[in-house]
Amino acid sequence: MDFDDKQTQTCSVCGGDSQGQGERRSHHDDKTIKELVTRMNRIEGQIRGIKGMIERHVYCDDILNQISSAQSALDGASRLLLEKHMKSCVKERLQGNDDQVVDEVLKTIFRMMR
Fold first, then answer.
1. Residues annotated as region Disordered (predicted)?
2. Where in the sequence is the domain holding 66, given as residue range(s)?
């Protein structure tokens, strides 16, 4: 298929191409972005701490507890982003009669449940 023949859908909110995942953009408010970045920075620090624990030969159970904590923090960030995604991106696409977004969200949720 030639690049010019590729059918694309444009997001009514951001004007981005909805075919290639790398080309789509979210449209969350600054408060949400700040909260997500803060969470990611905290998680990044946790991961660095876990790496240091491994390098220092800290007791395995202590490391596993820290890994569990980091996973919980990532799950919390995922839930927040999913909520914001549903209330903004998905809502807008449904209002634009893009029912394909339902399959996309279901696929994402099922992946998160693994």
1. 1-31
2. 3-113
